[in-house]
Specification:
- The structure is a homodimer of 166-residue chains.
- With 166 residues, chain A is mostly helical.
- Chain A has one domain: Arc Repressor Mutant, subunit A, CATH 1.10.10.
- Chain A has helices spanning 26-49, 53-64, 70-77, 81-93, 115-136, 142-156; strands spanning 97-101, 109-113.
- A two-stranded antiparallel ribbon of chain A has the order 1-2.
- In chain A, helix 1 crosses helix 5 (115-136), helix 2 (53-64) crosses helix 4 (81-93) and helix 2 (53-64) packs across helix 5 (115-136).
- The first copy, chain A, is globular.
- Chains A and B meet through helix 1, helix 2, helix 3, helix 5 and helix 6 of A and helix 1, helix 2, helix 3, helix 5 and helix 6 of B.
- Chain A binds a DNA duplex (23 and 23 nucleotides) through helix 4.
- Chains A, B: Pfam families: MarR (PF01047).
- Chains A, B: This is MarR family transcriptional regulator.
- Chains A, B: GO terms for molecular function: DNA-binding transcription factor activity.
Chain lengths: 166, 166
DNA sequence: TATTGTTATACTCTATAACTATA
DNA sequence: TATAGTTATAGAGTATAACAATA
């Protein structure tokens, strides 16, 4: 199945380069698709709210998981502890999240989003969802869009059963 | 369609954080899935061949498009010209590609992969395809895997009809 | 005047190591 | 002994600006 086929669509979206050999490489197609989603994010959230993708994700995960720790965030996003410290520093200095020392484990920092942080995360998510739907409407049906999200989620779940991968 | 549902799968693969609000954000699911494909790449190609993902992609696109220019590569990958210069420098210093001045347009550099470069690209692609298939086999059927690749390709094609995006 | 490619430079993001304070 | 978090530092990668050569 999925035997090699050479069609006019075996070409890069920009630059018109033949990519027949890369067509079935998941990492490559992911990188190409990420160019689009990154552009949508930068336009709809990054620039207007001055938020990097990581900042948005960290903020939203804190909104969804009040009382969580930085260590769990670091594991969820496969980034290092010093990295998380920096991003939380920025979000905290902007008044979007708060750090509190945990009562049960005094090493741990308990994270909460402020009202402003919650509002910003909600607004950002709404903008992204709308913009992504609009950007892909010409190429993907609503059903395809939903399937894509599910399949990506399944791929993400392959983490952990492997040696590497955060 | 795709109405919000709260299920046990609305959680990050690692760290077990609730991600219900992020579930439908394509950029987020892409980033999570990329953690897996990046790990596969690093293990199967990055470390053994000392190749970054960009280097592999640049090399493979040159193999597939002999005689192409750096400008087209930059457009295809949505990276800047100085960036491409650097990556080609590295590939050339390792004897994997050659630069020649174009006869028709003497500003342009014509790119060719060496025999060694061609062999390396082929070997790397084979390893990635095998490793990706194996890594995802437990989570995606062969059909789902193929559909995912097609849908990602369609997303990538949304580039260009937009303002931003390289 | 626009395009190809290079150099120089600065910036962002990330990773590692060393440290503290708890457990 | 291991974990949570911070700091300091170095590295990788990217972007911008300025330049040369050509179209």
């Amino acid at each position: 199945m999925a035997s090699k086929r050479l069609s006019r669509s075996d070409t890069t979206p920009a630059g018109r380069l033949d990519e027949a050999r890369l067509h079935d490489v998941l990492g490559y197609q992911m990188a190409q698709a990420t160019i689009v989603s990154n552009a949508v994010f930068a336009e709809q959230v990054g620039r207007p709210f001055d938020l990097r993708p990581v900042e948005y994700t960290v903020l939203t995960l804190i909104v969804e998981n009040p009382g969580g720790s930085q260590a769990r965030l670091a594991r969820a996003l496969a980034v290092t502890a010093p990295n998380i410290t920096m991003w939380i520093d920025r979000l905290e200095s902007r008044g979007l999240v708060r750090r509190e020392q945990s009562a049960r484990d005094r090493r741990s920092q308990v994270l909460h989003a402020t009202q402003e942080g919650i509002a910003l995360a909600r607004a950002a998510t709404q903008r992204i969802l709308d913009a992504e739907r609009q950007a892909l409407a010409a190429h993907l049906s609503a059903a395809e869009h939903a399937i894509l999200l599910e399949l990506l989620h399944k791929v993400a779940c392959a983490r952990g059963e492997r040696s590497g991968g955060g």
